[in-house]
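Quick one from the shared queue. A colleague (R.T.) flagged Maleate cis-trans isomerase as missing a structural entry in our internal table.

Convert sequence to structure tokens.
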Amino acid sequence: MGELSSPRDRDRVGVVVPYDFALDREMWRWVPERVTLHVTRTPFVATPADAAQARLISDPAMVRRAARDVLTPGPAVVAYSCTSGSFVGGVAGEAALRDAVLAAGAPAAVTTAGSLVAACAELGVTRLAVATPYVDDLTGLLADFLAGSGVETVARHGLGLLGHIWTTSPEQVAAAVRAADHPDAQAVFVSCTNLPTYDAIAALERELGKPVLTANQVTMWAALRAAGHSAVGPGQTLVDGPSVPPVLRVVDAAAPGRTDPGPADLDPVVLATAAGPGPAPLLKVRVRLPDESGALARLTAAVAEVGGNILSLSVHGRDAGTVVDEMLVGGGVTADRLSRVIRRRLRGSGPDTVQVTPADPHELVDGPTRALDLVAAARGRDGLFDGLAALLHADEVGTGPVAAGMHVLELTAPAGPPVLAARDWAPFTVTERARGEAFLRAGAATPPLRATVLLPGGAELVAEPAAGEETAELDVLLRTCLAGEPAVDWTAADLAGLLAPVAGPALLLRTAAGDLVGVAALLGTDTGVPEPVVVLHPCLRGAGVGRWLRGRLGSGVAA
């Protein structure tokens, strides 16, 4: 038993095939580059390819011995890859084969027939058409197995072959699929791992408008999934995900009571997508790539493969060896399918390498224009933080602590403490750091704005942001306001904090002669929510000036 003690390797898959299996190269085509197949064959038997042969090559004791032959490399799963051998004994026989593989010491086991049932469940298929190379009685046993598994066979077509099945051409396979298809079938299954099908699946799915499942495909799909991998199969629904082709929706263009055809009736057909949730109209794709020749070409090839349209592309520096490419993709492709195809094209990248999420159409505006719009809309600290969050696609922006487990970007602010941006969906890049700090500088450099206030008696007051140097004037105003009250002491630092709090500069209200008669500021609190504070000269109380000043806090001074 010493040879079975090596660590299980998720990049290794064991496969037991019949003695006459001849399509090794085809089976490998569903396998990602990093994964290795370790294949062994059952012993030779001199019998035609009928039900008797299927029973001989699926004897559980023999399958158990064969499974042991592939365990030394330490595969994560062992597949029994034979359709007839795994359905000829019915549902119980398929379960016995999996048990035999597990009893041999495999950490996980799949069979072709069991994988077919799993694939039907994955796609929601309960009505199936089947195309086989078999004689009729063996095809009938496949239908019996499917019925026992909850899948109805609505149509079947067999080629009647008793040997040399691997010599069947892809064209003959395609013809058999067309002959087997039925309007009530939700999918078509091509039985037998000795039939070549890889190159025919995508074209047949486009032609028939439904999934086409094949023996080697479902076996590799299930085995690789058990090992934590995705199979490779461009345009194959089971592997690549369903596409959402356009459909025609007829629109009744006639108005109520209208009897005569007019110009509006000449174009009654409108192109629309299929009903249901459908794909997002616009997707944001964020991919970490090695900074090397050809990396971007593989990414754009993946988008082209699924029919996507790259509407914008930007490159973010990340570190010395990698970059992050961010693009907006249209074209009706689903996020799940696009993500899978990109991962395949990038050869099994890790889960944090490829991120595909719905995008805001406003992001189609070029980066510099968007940044300028956000700066123009920012007023006060809160407005600036909201704009920064939109620019960086951050979940939180502030100066306080952030939730644990989030990606955090610390930005140097022109004044005050560092600003922290946080999000949980992706790390920040050095390019985003540069954008964020430039945004903060631009927001801080917004020129002071002034406003004029006319009092009911005709007197004119001017409001403007504080420069932070008006501590002596503020001291006089406070002592005037508190005249007759118990003495209160304050320091120059207290006054400076009132003039220049973290939330943004205070607003000063002056007479036409320049005398300071009012101050309004947003001061920090223990709750983190700034509190408005207004100080007015006694002569202005009751004139509504305090409400006016509060309305300007947090949004700047507007003319």
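The first strand starts at residue 9 and ends at 17.
The chain is about 35% helix and 25% strand.
Added to the table.
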